[in-house]
Write a structure and sequence with these properties.
about 50 residues; mainly alpha; about 0% strand; about 95% helix
Length: about 50
Amino acid sequence: MSSNKALRRAKHEAYERKEEDKGKLVVYLIFGGLIILAIIFMIITFSNN
C-alpha cells in the first residue's frame, strides 16, 4: 500500500512540475508578444514623423 502511495505522490509531483513549466511558457509568450507589439508601435510612431 505504501508503494502505491509513493507512486501516486511521484506522479502528482511530476504533473505539478509539468504544469509549472506550461505556466512559465505562457508568461514568456505574453511578455514576448507585448515587447514585439511595443517595437511595432515605436516603428509606426517614428515613421509617421
